[in-house]
């Protein structure tokens, strides 16, 4: 059913520091309104303020993406005092319905609607229509979600794959992961490599293994030094990051049967698309022994669209609100 017959819908992407809101009329997404979380004690007050300032018809429904786990349409934010409870917001703000979704679930919903201009191809074929679409994203954490379509219905599977054990594919990676294991105990994909803090952990472990004296750097500093060629260890760290990303993405592709395509999102990788393309990412993605041909046919793409979450929010609304 077209949303256009049911009135405006409020779309929101809510993080720990900033929240973004926009209205959709079913055809187009309006101007995005940026709000600082600290300026409002509750999400209810923030939404009420956004709606007061909006020069349009009041929305009748809301779809909210939140950076945190969602249980029973409710999320307690870890980096802000906001509690986003759809079942409370619905009557309080006079909405017919309020859906609260994990932010990476929303990215998965965006995948079918992304255009070629929103993506950078990273190898593979065209993908098989109707087969699962997988998105993985190194950022503050490591998000993984899979959009599955069956009999005309779609479901976004949300996972905690970032907390699975980080795999090693060669002796050097084994030594680096062993160094992190002495420090952390369990070394997860997120903590050991594929996140901002993971990239820093990788850099420090590689320095220990190589007995290299290097300055302390955060993820942004490591990336900058790698790209401008001022630090050999930073470059080696980013190369290992890309290789591990390929291995993990390939593992998840065969796990989910993601023959529709694998998408790389998150805040880190879009900063160095050329470096990723020239890295071992795709070779490691396909390096699955007897299943190499299976992986070779799966396309991998880098998501470059900064507001993909709003595309996902609208796509979810198109398929789930009636």
Secondary structure: elements and pairs:
Elements: E1 9-14, E2 18-24, E3 33-36, H1 43-53, E4 61-66, E5 74-76, E6 83-85, H2 86-93, E7 97-102, H3 103-110, E8 119-121, E9 133-138, E10 142-150, E11 153-158, H4 171-184, H5 189-192, H6 196-210, H7 219-228, H8 232-256, E12 261-264, H9 273-278, H10 281-286, H11 292-296, E13 300-303, H12 308-320
Parallel strand pairs: 1-4, 4-7, 9-12, 12-13
Antiparallel strand pairs: 1-2, 2-3, 5-6, 8-13, 9-10, 10-11
Helix pairs in contact: 3-12, 4-6, 6-8, 7-8
Task: Jot down its keywords.
322 residues, alpha/beta, six-stranded mixed sheet, globular, disordered N terminus
Oligomeric assembly:
single chain
| Fraction of residues in H or I helices | 25-40%
Mean pLDDT: 93
Give the spatial strand order of the biggest sheet. 8-13-12-9-10-11
The rounded distance between the terminal residues' Cα atoms is 6 Å
Could you give the order of the helices and strands?
A: EEEHEEEHEHEEEEHHHHHEHHHEH
Q: Strand count, sense and closure of the main sheet?
A: 6 strands, mixed
Low-confidence stretches: 1-5
Strand content: 15-25%
Q: What class would the helix/strand composition place it in?
A: alpha/beta
Number of strands: 13
Q: Give the overall shape.
A: globular
Q: What is the count of DSSP helices, taking H or I runs of 4+ residues?
A: 12
Cα-atom Rg, whole angstroms? 21 Å
